[in-house]
Amino acid sequence: MAETLDVPDAAAAVAAYARDVQALRDEIGRVIVGQAPVVDAAILALFAGGHLLLEGAPGTGKTLLVRTLAAALDLDLGRIQCTPDLMPADVVGTYLVEERDGRREFTFRQGPVFAHLVLADEVNRATPKTQSALLEAMQEHQVTAGGKTFPLPDPFVVLATINPIEMEGTYPLPEAQLDRFLLKVLVPGPSPAEIEAILDRTTGAAVPQARRVLDGERVRAMRALAREVPLGSRVRAWIARLVAATRPDAKEAGPLVKRYVRYGASARAAQALALGGKHLALAAGRAAVARDDVRTLAHAALRHRIVLSFEAEAEGIAPDALVDEALDRAGKG
């Protein structure tokens, strides 16, 4: 693999990428107060071509963030309010009988998943059957219904939220579903200063609205450029060691991982670290991935891919502590 960005006028392309990411970040910041790490994760998921899982209490701006991102990019937004009675057809769509020219025929009515940005609000309230309806869409970017396959828009990103407070009547996402999310981000509550700023912006006569700064065509071009960013052999080897260090049966694993982890991260974790690192490099105005780019992403890319043992859950061991150990072990390799 080439060690330099092999595109026409690479310096100008990198500068334009960084400039557009900053413009998008600034526009979202006009509406969203604080939450810079969460905003950056949403932007990363968009340009790295992955999906984002947001975990946080109500009122932390998760839904507003998704709406603002769609408005700033002039992209279609589909919203799914997940409840236990939600059916797969409510997500992907269904066939309806319609009368045309005196004849009845089946017509496929698209569901809310047919959008550029799809907000699956409180996804853990949907039943496993409905959760699985998102699997094909998230992985294959298509929906199959009635024996026919329907492509989803490009770009296509699912941003799902989880409310960690009310767990009664919820269905934890299975590992196969979690693994399809590029990142899992923990959304903190606002600080007192941020609450004051929220009051200033949302209780006055005028509420700020995001303006378009990019469009779908530019998003696709930026995605393609991110894929071209080289991943050096040393960084690639470090990613491999880091992912291996989350697996209890690997020689790279430390004592905490061996004791508290049932299953470690999959190869998708390595892909998330590599693709996310490429975006961070370009956003910082660099044409190559550095180890610090990967380190920045490690917790968000790995925490939801580590399956804890019963002992870990009983002792309150957090996945982030295990990621810390994996980072330390990978750095010693």
Write up this protein.
The structure is a single chain. By secondary structure, the protein is α/β, with parallel strands linked by helices. It folds into two domains: 181 residues, 3-Layer(aba) Sandwich (Rossmann fold); 105 residues, Orthogonal Bundle (Helicase, Ruva Protein, domain 3). A hairpin with a 2-residue loop joins strand 3 and strand 4. Helix 2 packs across helix 11 and helix 9 packs across helix 14. It is globular and about 70 Å long. The model has no long low-confidence stretch (mean pLDDT 87).
Main β sheet profile: 5 strands, parallel
The helix/strand order is HHEHEHEEEHEEEHEHHHHEHHEHH
Strand order of the largest sheet: 2-5-8-1-9
- Which regions contain 5 or more consecutive residues with pLDDT less than 50? none
First-residue to last-residue Cα separation: 22 Å
Summarize the structure.
With 333 residues, this protein is an alpha/beta fold. The chain has helices at 10-29, 36-48, 62-73, 88-92, 128-140, 175-178, 192-202, 216-228, 233-244, 255-260, 267-283, 291-302, 310-314, 319-331; strands at 52-55, 77-81, 93-100, 103-110, 117-121, 142-145, 148-151, 157-162, 183-186, 261-263, 307-308.
Topology:
Layout: H1 10-29, H2 36-48, E1 52-55, H3 62-73, E2 77-81, H4 88-92, E3 93-100, E4 103-110, E5 117-121, H5 128-140, E6 142-145, E7 148-151, E8 157-162, H6 175-178, E9 183-186, H7 192-202, H8 216-228, H9 233-244, H10 255-260, E10 261-263, H11 267-283, H12 291-302, E11 307-308, H13 310-314, H14 319-331
Parallel strand pairs: 1-8, 1-9, 2-5, 5-8
Antiparallel strand pairs: 3-4, 6-7, 10-11
